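[retry 2/3] 1-acyl-sn-glycerol-3-phosphate acyltransferase: previous attempt timed out, resubmitting with same input.
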Amino acid sequence: MGKNLAYKLNYVWRLFGTAVSFTTFGIGGFLLWVLVFPVLSILPGSCRQKIKRGQHVVHYSFFAFIGLMHRIGIMTYEIVGLEKLNRPGQLILANHPTLVDIVFLISRVREASCIVKASLWRNPAMRGPILNAGYISNGDPEQMIEDCVDWLRAGGSMIIFPEGTRSVPGNPYRFQRGAAAIALQAGAVVTPVAVSCYPSTLTKAEPWYSIPYRRRFHLAMHVGEDIPLAEFQRIEPKSIAVRRLNRYLQDYFTQQREIYQYHGK
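[retry 2/3] 1-acyl-sn-glycerol-3-phosphate acyltransferase: success.
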């Protein structure tokens, strides 16, 4: 009886903490939009310098958010291979099991752009970070690829989820070809990051309040070795090269999911 009560109390606390965390995220994003970013926009500097400032603000804000979730007991996390990130012109490709994957990644990469849904440009909690950090809309796929390639060639780094949306637990990966096309056109340094979450939570099919009953979730990030592109760049026509690289990435992350499936502490 005592153990069941402890589980219930812990669950109620984590549910409350989750609500507080996401409320804080929304309010924080709005305050950045109306208070912080307007000040940054009037500081002297080129467009690229202003974007980098915006990315730094988002990075530190997300770092604080992940720290909040950890400290109040919602989640634990681990990062393996962090030293392989934060390089100029780096394309970071990751799988996408949970809602907070992008927050977790950006909290560890100081200057990174990413692709966002066009609908989020109207979200008051996200509009400020999106506009001021130079994030790229997926509204026009051709323009999206062009913008990503230009950013990488100019020495910027990017985080992309090849799935395009969150994974469905138990389903095989189905990668879109955009990430592979961007990698080959930009000739970028491609670094894979395998993200795992146990117990599964904040997936595409779950609302924010559907949290694990017995324990906090554990989010792990394993940074792999750079993926060599030379063999794919030699393939003609380019459409075949994109298709083969996309298949390679899909197989790679499928294998990583099996290796890093977290079986729990």
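[retry 2/3] 1-acyl-sn-glycerol-3-phosphate acyltransferase: The helical segments are 2-42, 47-71, 101-106, 127-132, 141-153, 178-186, 230-233, 238-259.
[retry 2/3] clearing retry counter.
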